[in-house]
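Subject: design request, 222 residues
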């Protein structure tokens, strides 16, 4: 794991990755969840969306939209550093890592109020009940990667417990899918954030120096 504090006043500050939750009705930031320690690695998978998937060879080179991108990370949480300074970290002293875990898990839960409201409306005989919208989740990994995501699954391994059985160490695995303009209303805030990410990738690609076929051992193409 990458510890994000500085060991020397002259050491460069390492940015923290994490999530930003945005209210889809008001566009207000509901919560920021920063990784305690940045993951050592981040796995990505991109699957092209093409119109030639049905066997139409005339359409083989046409792209119907951005690729389906999945991101996987493994992070670690550890209460040790916080417990060294109990006066500055009263929550960690009281519940260890439970609060950090709950903040992450809350992304996958509807609010308890919305569950209660849905139940009460069903009891009153409403035939069609539209669930409340979940907040927009942005995965932030530096300035060049801010993307709307759908967290598909989360697994946690708790290790070490205090006398009240609060977890002291946690290994966290997260899998998420990037939501693109194929998945979102084009004029929505989420789609706008994805379009900005798309343009950032294009701008980064332009910074890569041009190659030549000679570098590949060819004089000319066949």
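Subject: RE: design request

Done. Sequence follows.
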């Amino acid at each position: 794991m990458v510890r994000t504090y500085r060991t020397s006043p002259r050491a460069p500050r390492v940015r923290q990755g994490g999530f930003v939750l945005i209210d889809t009705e008001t566009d207000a930031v509901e919560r920021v969840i920063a990784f305690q320690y940045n993951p050592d690695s981040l796995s990505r998978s991109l699957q092209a969306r093409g119109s030639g998937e049905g066997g139409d060879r005339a359409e083989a080179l046409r792209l119907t939209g951005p690729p389906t991108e999945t991101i996987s990370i493994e992070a670690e949480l550890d209460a040790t550093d916080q417990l060294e300074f109990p006066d500055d970290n009263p929550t960690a002293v009281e519940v260890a890592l439970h609060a950090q875990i709950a903040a992450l898990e809350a992304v996958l839960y509807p609010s308890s109020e919305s569950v209660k409201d849905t139940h009460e409306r069903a009891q009153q005989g409403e035939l069609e009940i539209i669930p409340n919208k979940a907040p927009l989740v942005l995965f932030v990994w530096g300035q060049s990667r801010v993307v709307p995501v759908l967290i598909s699954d989360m697994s946690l391994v708790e290790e070490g417990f205090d006398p009240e059985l609060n977890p002291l160490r946690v290994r966290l695995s997260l899998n998420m899918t990037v939501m693109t303009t194929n998945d979102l209303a084009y004029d929505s805030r989420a789609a706008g954030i994805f379009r900005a990410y798309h343009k950032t990738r294009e701008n980064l690609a332009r910074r890569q120096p041009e190659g030549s076929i000679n570098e590949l051992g060819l004089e000319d193409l066949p």
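The beta strands are 2-3, 18-22, 29-34, 37-38, 42-50, 63-78, 136-140, 146-161, 167-178.
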